[in-house]
Amino acid sequence: MEKLYTKDTQAIFWNNNKTAIQRMLDYDYTIQRKTPSVAAIVAPTSGNKFEKFFYGPDEVMIPLYKTTTAAKKEHANAEVLLNFASFRTAYDVTMEAIELGGFSSIMVTAEGIPERLARKMNNTARNAGVTVIGPATVGAIAPGAFKIANIGGTIENIVNSKLHRAGSCGLVTRSGGLFNELSNIIAINADGIAEGVAIGGDRFVGSVFIDNMLRMEKNPEVKYMVLLGEVGGTEEYKIIEAIKDGRITKPVIAWCIGTIAKHFSTGVQFGHAGASANADAETAAAKNKAMAEAGIYVPASFNDLPATINKVYSDMLAKGIISEIPEPKMSLVPKVRRSKQFICTISDDRGEECTYAGFPISSVATPDTGKGIGDVISLLWFKKQYPQWATEFIETVIKTVADHGPAVSGAHNAKVTARAGKSVVESLVTGLLTIGPRFGGAIDGAAKYFKYADDNDLDPKAFLKYMKGEGVPIPGIGHRIKSLKNPDLRVTGLMNYAAEHFPSTPLLDYAKSVEALTTSKKENLILNVDGTIGILMVDMWRALGYSESEINEFIESGTLNAFFIVGRSIGFIGHVLDEKRLAMPMYRHPMDDILYDVQEAEKL
Ligand code: ACO
Ligand code: LMR
């Protein structure tokens, strides 16, 4: 790997850390990234499907997932995991991601992961070729391309520290706070940084100085490196080795903080878990001396570090190794932003012409477009342009259920309402409100139960037993007037269409085997029109490539009954207009058609 991140890098952010994610997106907007750097968020306990964030003046929706596996499945190109889990969970989250594969780097922010686990985690990552940044870090940044969470601070600070575009320095530190300080110093005394990593303060961190500096050696944007080490550990000696054996050839400026330790009579533990010298060679003074001897630019004190950086940079600039960096165009994040109350993902009326899922109305409305109502439904309900066999199936369903005469429950209610003097809309709604599990609204239920039975390999007998246990009649089975002897030709029509146009109909085949059993008990227990529609819609969605969870979601949200609602509205309106045309008087039900069985009230 030559560069840790590019302008196309996308991350999965583990934990819905809204402020940090917003800072990433503000950065993305400022540097004019094409895509947000956060592709998905893992929020294990949230029931929400997305989180809204500002992207400049507008808002974007970042999808939420319960697991890394689910997020990665949908966002395979997101190859960075930003693990913001607590120290209790961070290990498991990292291990799951390594096992899952497809991540080039994982950043672990938690401080205090047990050292035994941290070592195991780091080794597993190393063996899998995954770069771990951290634990106990604020992360890393490739200015002008990708920044992790809060590194660099606010957007103002980022621009002031020239972190909005690539400079020439490769910066590695342990500390996050000092990382920000150093990037500011480098901005003032040189042209900023090309890549920077705070490797983390724990004793056992994933990628160490040498890993990052060897990568920076290969990164053509990095012309020289600044290393801010600290008391404790021997990682700085690996840089000396690399310079000696020629693996690092670019100029290195370094300083180890903690030289004050020699003024204390006993060993000192500084803020970081790893910041304590266990041997003379681990003291800051010893490391600074060894680095200077190896030809690294080591200032006399931390205070002299800015001047050293300025000198190395100026020399390289004078020699033409570094050239002046032109300032790129930036977008300004507005100071005042207002979050939107409503979201619409299906149609957009802001342009000259309203669009249905991106299709201007004129491109679907007239016959010459070749589009029908099935296309419009596929666009507005499912936000996809379905193939012709599927849109024509939808239209066949709508036409098939448009009406079934005046006697059916809903039409009867609509007619009675119209005769009471109510309007078309009131009468229509009365009819629609009749649609339910017994009448017309058994489509979702049929899809749900037949799919469940088929998914669980229940044979028809076992399915019937299961439904008996549930205590509900099988949705999609049975009809008041249709039977084996008086078959429902609507059902035959739908089945014939499917046989001719569907790639396959596995759920319908299963449902027919159930029907064979129910009709052997009672001949009107046929697969009815609701059942046939629900089952064939599942077969259609499967053939269209929807996942099982997407199909289950359609069923749960009542999508299937909506086909009956749309279709039958046509018939109900017809009946209402019929009543109005005939100027029918108010309806009163004949009393001789009612069994009156009213007893005198019992006195309490
Ligand atoms: N599953 C299992 N047994 C059933 C079913 C069923 N879906 N439907 C009826 N039965 C049984 C009843 O338990 C009853 O048994 P029993 O005689 O041993 O007591 C017998 O058949 C008669 O029951 P009824 O409710 O009187 O049947 P009817 O033929 O009058 O009802 C109805 C028709 C309401 C459609 C019924 O079959 C049913 O509830 N089906 C499920 C819901 C459904 O699919 N509705 C959509 C119909 S199509 C449309 O509206 C567009
Ligand atoms: C319908 O389409 O309304 C029905 O199948 C119900 C019925 O009673 O005819």
Outline the structure in words.
The chain is an alpha/beta fold and about 600 residues long. It folds into 4 domains: about 10-135, Rossmann fold; about 165-325, Rossmann fold; about 355-385, no CATH class; about 410-580, Orthogonal Bundle (Cytochrome p450-Terp, domain 2), CATH 1.10.230.10. It is built from 21 helices and 16 strands. The strands form 3 sheets. It has a 7-stranded mixed beta sheet with strand order 3-4-2-1-5-6-7, with helices on both faces. α1 links the parallel β1 (about 10-15) and β2. The radius of gyration is 35 Å and the shape is elongated. The model has no long low-confidence stretch (mean pLDDT about 95). Acetyl coenzyme *A binds near residues 474 and 522. Acetyl coenzyme *A (ACO) binds near residues 440, 474, 528 and 531.
Biggest sheet, open or closed, and with what strands and sense? 7 strands, mixed
Sequence stretches where pLDDT stays below 50 over 5 or more residues:
none
Would you tell me the overall average pLDDT? Answer: 95
- Domain count: 4
CATH homologous superfamily designation of the largest domain: Cytochrome P450-Terp, domain 2
> Strand tally, please?
16
Unique bound compounds: acetyl coenzyme *A, (2S)-2-hydroxybutanedioic acid
Which descriptor suits the 3D outline?
elongated
Which CATH-level-2 architecture of the largest domain?
Orthogonal Bundle
Which range does the strand content fall in?
A: 5-15%
Sheet with the most strands: spatial strand order:
3-4-2-1-5-6-7
CATH topology of the largest domain: Cytochrome p450-Terp, domain 2
Query: What is the CATH C level class of the largest domain, in words?
Result: Mainly Alpha
Q: Count of DSSP helices?
A: 21
Structural class by sheet pairing and helices:
alpha/beta
Please identify the oligomeric state.
single chain
* Rounded radius of gyration (Å): 35 Å
In whole angstroms, how far apart are the ends?
87 Å
